[in-house]
Amino acid sequence: MKNLKQIFNYSFPILVAVIGFSSSIVSLFIDLNMKVSIRWVIFLIVISLTLICALGKYIFELLKKQSKPAMENPISCMKANEMGNDEVIFLIRNNENFKYNIFVAGYGKRNQLDTLLFVGFVENAQEKMLQIRVNTWVQEVDLFDLQGNIKQEILSSIEIRPVIPKQAIDFLTNNGGY
Questions:
Q1: 9 vs 16, 53, 54, CA distance in Å?
Q2: In this model, does residue 121 exceed pLDDT 60?
Q3: Could you tell me if 117 and 175 are in contact, meaning their C-beta atoms sit under 8 angstroms apart?
Q4: How far apart are CA 71 and CA 80, in angstroms?
Q5: What is the pLDDT of residues 1-35, one digit of tens each?
Q6: What pLDDT score was predicted for residue 117?
Q7: CA 166 remoteness from chain centre
């Protein structure tokens, strides 16, 4: 991908140099005073190659700006023992869909169905990572074994999305969530 970027960044000056060189070679070997002037043919080739390079660069820039998916899988998690609360904090990769302090929902895969597990918010946004603090568990999950280690198979099945479903809003309103 980097090589393609370098090619497109330097393509216009190289194109101009190649066209200048080829037109000088053509003018040496071909009679330029013919009825259908070769200059028009060269001019049309130059214009078409310039348009092709410009469109190629534009398409390359569009492909480079593909958006990230509106979900992330947690990399790690830990318990935050603040004032007797055993809240869980998930660590995910930074994603443009997750903004600071927005509410997020965590889903688990069970029998290939998404099940709402928790509602949380983006607590800390760093350059490459985000911290998601869980506010309310809709369904309890045993993330930690008896020694306090993370169960990786459960952690890898969790998906965090930057949207709150109506089900979670109803749950928070009826159960006094914050």
A1: 13, 10, 10
A2: yes
A3: no
A4: 23
A5: 555 555 556 666 776 777 777 777 776 666 666 66
A6: 87
A7: 26
